[in-house]
Input
Amino acid sequence: MKKPVRVTITGAAGQIGYQLAFRIASGQMLGKDQPIILQLLEISPALPALNGVVMELEDCAFSTLANVIATDDANLAFKDSDYALLVGAMPRGPGMERNDLLEANAKIFTHQGKAINENADHQIKVLVVGNPANTNALIASSNAPNINPKNFTAMTRLDHNRAKAYLAKKINSKSQDIKNMIIWGNHSATQYPDIEHVKSAGSHIKNELKLDWLENDFIPAIQQRGATIIKARGASSAASAASAAIDHMHDWVLGTPSDDWVSMGVPSDGSYNIAPGIIYSFPVRCSNGSYQIVQNLPISDFSKKRMINTEIELREERAAVEDLL
Ligand code: NAX
Output
């Protein structure tokens, strides 16, 4: 067994947190040989519920779970943390405009960015799940000057996984045989799920798909999948979101297969002419605990237009919270 690592989950008593805590504690994120100390953060009114989660974690008797800390103090929750999954966020309430949501969450992610800066291990890897995920990640990063901005990422892996599954169904393949999917941009309805580089069992699939299906079925279905699930379930995606968060962290730490890449929201470095200063989803390859944006992919005019559209939304989100950066 290795030395234990500390994993912080915020919003740990919420829907996604309830899935994540058990899967991480049982070794599904970092491996069965990696002991975990879970550091769970909630707001004060949710502490009784969080204590219930802690009791259930104990009752699982996971061999990989070394300790659990449950708290409403961000400084304690991020103390010496090696990995953080920032899930807790303010949901969009009735009558709330997009900018109200941005502002409410900006406060949470400013506070947590500072707590990470002051308490966490400086090599910490951070995944932001709470929405608006890309801009929340930017705010947290801006408030953590001691941590490399590359270590703050946002989750578009759920969109990536959804797109693979949707394509596999369409062409009668298996999700695991669909490679080189890309989600560009924001985790929002402007995201661009790009199939132009996708291969199934080693062959490009672009020519098997009609433009009409792409434009009027596939792209809107992936962009709206979250809303479709809310309509069906009466609650937003939780198990699939937790699963995607685990995939994101697993691949970042342990690497991507040599014949594939994944989508991650990461600070733009100007690749593909996307403006630096925003957190934008790119195709990335991971190895030795770091990621690199896949370079030099040919981009069609069809794609370019959609990549710019989602970039514009992220720049607008950034402008709305500029004073916090
Ligand atoms: P829930 O409302 O079930 O849980 C959120 C939890 O966060 C609650 O228990 C709440 O008490 C806690 N919380 C609120 N403010 C906090 C703070 N300042 N510190 C610590 N905890 C805090 O929501 P859930 O369904 O778990 O979703 C969580 C977030 O994930 C939402 O923002 C949601 O929009 C977002 N999602 C993001 C996805 C993505 O792909 N990036 C997909 C799934 C999900 O919709």
